[in-house]
Amino acid sequence: MTEVIERSSVVAPEHIDGQAAWMGSEMAERGDWIEVLTSAELDEIEQAIHRFKSSGAPLCDISTNTFVLPLLAPRLKRILNDVINGRGFVMLRGFDVDRYSTEETAIAYLGIGAYLGSFRSQNAAGHLLGHVKDTGVDIRKPTVRFYQTNRALEYHTDSCDIVGLICLKTSRTGGESRIVSSVSIYNKMMRTRPDLVEQLFHAFPTDRRGEVPEGTLPWFDIPVFNWHAGQLTTIYVGQYIRSAQKNFPLARRLTEKELEALDLLDALTNDPQLNLQMEFKPGDMQFLHNHQILHSRTDFEDWPEPERKRHLMRLWLAPKDARELPECFAARYGSTAPGDRGGIITQKTKLTFTLNVT
């Protein structure tokens, strides 16, 4: 049972138990987070791909009604529960991307994703099917995001309930996925520096990177840690908290102790006892619960041939049975209503599914 204590204005637990409080060193020895698709399930997916493609319907029509998976659906329901109420992540393995065109792979991935939640916009352009690929852009530009480069990503969360990736092509070297439980980080911080944990319940100005909804500031203010409805919910992009300090003089200035708390959080994400590293294979599908999992990626060196370059497709998903969120999430998610929250919407956003990298 979680014992809740009060420090200053922060009500927070001393320690959080449960499946979400996993350690990377222990998880690396387990294989239960890798779900291997059976031959019967793969046949079912292939039949669903061909049915949908032959219908001539656009990608926006993909749903559980148009991509029917009677065999796999119950397993996906159990996987969804593992993601949002259990350890917070899964790797679905066995889909052979080399057998299919990019369009057919997208149909399969969207079809599977539809069983996990509704699709959410991943950028101001309104992409519901995102592409993670080095496009040669300069990260120093204020509107560029790290997934468009080959740079390492610091541990962070995305602006949705669940983020999914499917690997189409791997890099020449590097680009490994790394994840860590924010619940385990919280527990360790509470044991060692509870005074700094309290700082992370403050609202931090976070850069929107030029993707600004109508009527809002170019940054949003939200705590890194929230204790709400008996659960620890985390939202964190340290790089964008720091760029807000640099780019927006009117944003609240962080205190030295708040900066120390961010530094400790970053250090703990890189603790090999806490984090878990996994290598994507072509066809692997990874789904992460942003409210309890921080994710990152190592630097990578790509292949010189354009057709071989590292390429992943991404989904942002909003499950109908998602956890309750504190109202402060509306500053980033637009709404806190399960199944209809998260994503990036601006005045010029037009929702679209694209098979091209832009």
Overview features:
single chain, alpha+beta, 4-stranded antiparallel sheet, 24% strand, disordered N terminus
Short overview:
This protein is of the alpha+beta class.
Describe this structure as you would to a colleague:
- By secondary structure, the protein is α+β, with helices and mostly antiparallel strands.
- It contains nine helices and 20 strands.
- Helix 2 (39-55) crosses helix 4 and helix 5 packs across helix 8 (256-269).
- Residues 1-7 have low confidence and may be disordered.
Number of helices: 9
Q: Biggest β-sheet: count, sense, barrel?
A: 8 strands, mixed
Helix/strand-derived category reads: alpha+beta
Uncertain stretches of 5 or more adjacent residues: 1-7
Give me the secondary-structure topology.
Layout: E1 4-7, E2 10-13, H1 24-27, E3 34-36, H2 39-55, H3 73-85, E4 89-93, H4 102-114, E5 118-119, E6 127-132, E7 153-156, E8 162-169, E9 173-174, E10 177-181, H5 182-192, H6 194-199, E11 203-207, E12 219-223, E13 225-228, E14 231-234, H7 238-247, H8 256-269, E15 276-278, E16 285-289, E17 293-297, E18 300-301, E19 311-318, H9 330-333, E20 352-353
Parallel strand pairs: 3-4, 6-20
Antiparallel strand pairs: 1-2, 4-16, 5-19, 6-19, 7-17, 8-16, 8-19, 9-18, 10-15, 10-17, 11-12, 13-14
Helix pairs in contact: 2-4, 5-8
